[in-house]
Amino acid sequence: MKSGVRRGSVTYRYAAMALALLGHLASAVAQAPALPGTPAGNAARTPLTLEEAMALAKPESFGTSVFSAWWTADGRQLVYQQMRPGLPAPASYSVAPADGSVRPLDAAAAARVDPEERSVDAAGRRIVFARDGIVLRALPDGEGLRLTSDAQDRDPRFAADGQQVYFRRGADWWAVPAGGNAAAKPLLQPRGELPPPANRPGANDAGAAVYLDPQVVVSNSWLSPDGRHALVATKPKGYDAGRVAQMPKYITASGYPEMEDLLPYIGRNPDPPQALWLVDVAGQRAQRVDVATLTGIGTDPLADLRAARKLPALVGPRSFAVAGAQWSPDGRQVVVQIATPDRRDIWLAGVDADSGKLAQRDHQVGLALIPAGFGFLPDGRLWFQSETGGFFGLYLNDGRNTRAVVNGPFEIGFDSVQWSPDGRHAYFTCNRRQPTHWEVCRVDADGSGLRELTVLDGGVGSQVFFDVIRLSPDGRQLAVRHSAPLLPLQLSLVDAETGATRRVTDTRGEAMKAQVAQLVEPRFVAIPSRHFKGQLWAKLHRPDTLDPARRYPLVLILHGGNTVQGASPRVASPREALFAQFLVAQGYLVLEIDYRGSIGYGRDFRESVYRRLGLAEVEDFRDAVDYMVAQHQVGRDQVGAYGCSYGGYLAYMAAFLAPDVFKAVASASGWSDFTATFNSNPGTFLDTPVLNPDTFAASSATTHAHKLATQLLILHPMDDRAVAYEHAVRVVQKLLDAGKQSWDFVTYPAGEHCFSDRPDYGADAYRRTFQVFERHLKP
């Protein structure tokens, strides 16, 4: 079980986020040689063809990631899973912590392994977990005792006295004796309805039902360890989320076109407001928790926009979502995380179990905040991550005062914190050396002893996997997943005290092992900015030496996200990485820039695109191209760009706003009109279309399509659920209406977002992109 972290689910929580950090001990260096997926920069190279590059990107050639790793409850095994090419289900493996030896687990052995999501009793002698019902097992080698057999039973945990096991079934909490000698009974059944009339038969035998309000439905709940209290989050019953967008699908089993519902467009209706309730379980009473005491919750940060649009002013507290809640192990404290849908405020507040009153523990204010991890130490102090100091830091609160344990000027990886069993040390990913370089760090709870524990070439995690550290139950070893530009996520064992590292896996395919020495090793460059105080970081792919007599064409690969980090050694898309290698082999330089809005550089850098999406980033592209012309022999008239998803949107903006810089641009699965996006990042950087139509217009590519004066290639699958095909259609309409000629449009009948379901279509998109670059970027 991940130590101390429980997270709720809110629609604006980012799917993919986090960071990492730095390298350290000489003793660890000797045991941690260079990553096998790092190209050898001086090896002789033969030109790579596109067909070879796309073949290398296939899972059987590139290799597949270790996508999960966890310790068994007794710490005697480390288990990891990998999706092997050609297999219908993940393959499971067991690692011996003493020597790092690996043995595969067959289906029967894998079924006997403790899952990561489990609860351990206070004595550390029993575990309980969900597996087609609730199962209890004595440590270390007891047989599993099945307590329930309902597959919908989930989230089991031991009661404080260890005599019962609590679990959820639907929206209800149930209890079952830990001895398995009696059937489960309902403990708490929160209901969004009126209580039955007193004179109705059976009205006095309401069981575990607690009646909240007839106008609400239960969203989530958190039961105290002793089962006496619970927090319940609700949303309005029958809430109208707005008309959904629809996507036509033409390649169907029926042979007929079919429509698939997507989500409502952004701002059509906001996410449903939630309410928070405190429930006395035994007394079957509930009271709504008053959030009005939270600092700033009654202040509308968008009041000026509302007034300008002659819209009614907000009255009372703003709507909010309960992003998560945590009870302390002894049940004496509970803290709830509350976030506003406008992403301007996040609060941590204690709830008094007797009165239901809130006691504020922390308050963040910003423009685009991210709810992050929090929990309790064994001594009862609250720990949490916060950007209060401008960077994701680590803080402790004793109920009265908050103290920074780590507070920049670097980032702690989003939701990466692991505490030692005694609460004396914290482990996390961080980028202390430079923003692009991620290692595992360790710090003492009093803030002393901060150091980089690993030497993994800055590749801890990947571009889309951030929660990559697992501390062993005895606190002595870390299981760390890490990657490199041409290496999928691997697993290593790290001594939690010395940092000595033993590499456990090498999941590369044989083709990549044979080829990697002939590929280009990227370098990381700092680019001065003319548009903000600071610098941009980028990953540069180029030959070791350049011909001093020539100028080179340059391609910017624009990462998606937008709040991810592209300029790091961590693996991202194998196809994109190999496309970059192919371009270098064909005489191009390739730059992957972390434009403003990317993560890893602090809150101000990430939020600096607020109300300027697309506009700020194009300014950064100009700075990057100026740098490459001055420092790396790039031809001023030989610059192109490619991007997918948010990168595809930025490719549109580059083509329309900077035709003096970019001579050829390819946009794949790109947004074009932010009024047709959903209630999630990145459109929320622009407020809502109703409140701020001007920013939505200024940041939408469709607004600027009439300015096209360069070559544009549009690539979009028709079944893209993340960025609907209509975004390409809207751009094409604007181009046709403006009489523009320098564009081509390739429709793919299937493939999903960024061709994730059809790699062959993705290879076709790269081939067409390369052909455009060849025609327009080379003399």
Tell me about this structure.
The protein contains 14 helices and 43 strands. By secondary structure, it is α+β, with helices and mostly antiparallel strands. The strands form 10 sheets. Strands 36-37-39-38-40-41-42-43 form an 8-stranded mixed sheet, with helices on both faces. Strands 9-10-11-12-13 form a 5-stranded mixed sheet, with no helix packed on it. The chain has a 4-stranded antiparallel sheet with strand order 1-2-3-4. The longest helix is centred in the last third of the chain and has 19 residues, at 759-777. It is globular, with a radius of gyration of 27 Å. The relative contact order is 0.12. The model is unreliable at 1-33 (pLDDT under 50).
Radius of gyration: 27 Å
Strand content: 25-35%
Which class best fits the helix and strand makeup?
A: alpha+beta
- Enumerate how many helices there are, as a single number: 14
The low-confidence runs, each spanning 5 or more residues with pLDDT under 50, are 1-33
Average pLDDT for all residues? 91
Count of distinct strands: 43
Strand order in the largest sheet: 36-37-39-38-40-41-42-43
Helix content: 10-25%
Major β-sheet annotation: 8 strands, mixed
What oligomeric state is this?
Answer: single chain
Overall morphology: globular
Straight-line N-to-C gap: 58 Å
